[in-house]
Amino acid sequence: MAAELVEAKNMVMSFRVSDLQMLLGFVGRSKSGLKHELVTRALQLVQFDCSPELFKKIKELYETRYAKKSVEPSPQVPRPLDPLALHSMPRTPLSGPTVDYPVMYGKYLNGLGRLPTKALKPEVRLVKLPFFNMLDELLKPTELVPQSTEKLQESPCIFALTPRQVEMIRNSRELQPGVKAVQVVLRICYSDTSCPQEDQYPPNIAVKVNHSYCSVPGYYPSNKPGVEPKRPCRPINLTHLMYLSSATNRITVTWGNYGKSYSVALYLVRQLTSSDLLQRLKTIGVKHPELCKALVKEKLRLDPDSEIATTGVRVSLICPLVKMRLSVPCRAESCAHLQCFDAVFYLQMNEKKPTWMCPVCDKPAAYDQLIIDGLLSKILSECEDADEIEFLAEGSWRPIRAEKEPSCSPQGPILVLGTSDANGLPPASSTPGVGGSVGSSLGGAGSGAGAAGGPENGRPGADVVDLTLDSSSSSEDDDEDDEDDEDDDEGPRPKRRCPFQKGLVPAC
């Protein structure tokens, strides 16, 4: 039964529009639409509602078509044959319906995107994704054509994997539990042929693989008021829901028809990690230090039209992404700055949320444009005690280290060497020793206290209490304080001037 089913599908794939219309009319199905729509309906009919009568009708139409073709006279005009054209010429069966049909493994059987060979319509192309290495193309980009006027449409697709492709999937390593590195992914984009298209989901998208729905990335919540949430449009992994055998897989894409045209494609890919891309970048993306040095000289070359001469340019050794010291200095060749960012963190961030924007100048920095600065890598290994360097005009460099600010605190305790006289100056002493000065200060404590108690030049002196004096001296001081209190009754006490303005030296 499986052989008959494959044979019937191959016959349907070779039908013309008139044959397809006759077959669909035979079972009471709609005969309107383009050829790829008719092929889709016929294949669905064969896959799910194939009966002996239907198989007999398909065989009858196939025999009738090739019977007409065999009686047509062949052209007698000799033409030189192109050796390259021999491989693309269609093979005519020699014995009618008993021809050996090729097995349609690895090709889409629904004919969803199959157009007549004479139509030279440009094909839709999708952008190359750094984290996905394409192995095989299972379904070319095919436009989603609405079948009715309803807003919600369904587009089915039927295909099978080859034994080699199944083996590749089963033997591939696991990126995480249940996720293989070799995957069958579905990509959707706008039907625009002017340039390679990025992945873009249609509204109300839902993907059903065989009998189960596949999860589709949801929306990112927006923290800004009035800004709609965005959905990360990425390839959809279908591998875990597929039949990893020779059986055909049915994929149904449900989408909202709101005026825009979309195309879908199926690929067999190998998913890479940020570590894989980093290793590849270190292998093929390192720029020689001499080339980087020439770029520095070019940046610092004197412009004759400029009135300001640039003698140097500063470059930070701190990554602007994570504020840590650079380990693999990297930048895009399209960037005009010398500042680098860390390739390790840049690839990890784009693995989670692919934006591929330079963190220094906010311009596109695709993976294919990234280079590792060999000169800055050498500087990082030689200069470990600085976070910034300066490139000079001749291509050399010098580290810029932060200068330590001097401390304003005193280095030791302060000793008072003497009291001030009436003019606020310390008394002169013929004894250079510190002990003599201290002794004279203690010996003249009574007179010093008296001088300090009265106003000097309109300014009051500071009260000095000497704990080495006896009780009699304390009583004298109390009497002097009483006199000062009496003076306070007469009027406001004038401000006193501190007698110890000079004569302070550090004890050490």
From TrEMBL:
Stretches for region Disordered: 402-508
Pathway(s) annotated for this protein in UniProt: Protein modification; protein sumoylation
Family label: Belongs to the PIAS family.
Residue stretches making up the PINIT domain: 112-272
UniProt-listed Enzyme Commission number(s): 2.3.2.27
Catalytic activity: S-ubiquitinyl-[E2 ubiquitin-conjugating enzyme]-L-cysteine + [acceptor protein]-L-lysine = [E2 ubiquitin-conjugating enzyme]-L-cysteine + N(6)-ubiquitinyl-[acceptor protein]-L-lysine
Residue ranges the record marks as coiled coil: none
Pfam families xrefs: PINIT, SAP, zf-MIZ
Subcellular location per the Swiss-Prot or TrEMBL entry: Nucleus, Nuclear body
GO BP terms in the entry: central nervous system development; DNA damage response; hair follicle development; limb epidermis development; mRNA destabilization; negative regulation of canonical NF-kappaB signal transduction; negative regulation of double-strand break repair via homologous recombination; negative regulation of protein localization to chromatin
UniProt entry keywords in alphabetical sequence: DNA-binding, Isopeptide bond, Ligase, Metal-binding, Nucleus, Transcription, Transcription regulation, Transferase, Ubl conjugation, Ubl conjugation pathway, Zinc, Zinc-finger
SUPFAM superfamilies recorded: SAP domain (SSF68906)
Domain SAP as annotated: residue spans: 12-46
Protein name: E3 SUMO-protein ligase PIAS4
Entry GO terms, CC: chromatin; cytoplasm; nuclear body; nuclear matrix; transferase complex
Compositional bias (Acidic residues): 475-490
PROSITE patterns: PINIT, SAP, ZF_SP_RING
Keyword Translocase belongs to the record: no
Domain of life, source organism: Eukaryota
Domain called SP-RING-type: residue spans: 304-385
Transmembrane segments: none
Biased composition annotated in UniProt, kind: Gly residues: 433-456
Subunit (UniProt): Interacts with AR, GATA2, LEF1, TP53 and STAT1 (IFNG-induced). Interacts with TICAM1. Interacts with MTA1. Interacts with PRDM1/Blimp-1. Interacts with TRIM32 upon treatment with UVB and TNF-alpha.
Molecular function GO terms recorded: DNA binding; ligase activity; SUMO ligase activity; transcription corepressor activity; ubiquitin protein ligase activity; ubiquitin protein ligase binding; zinc ion binding
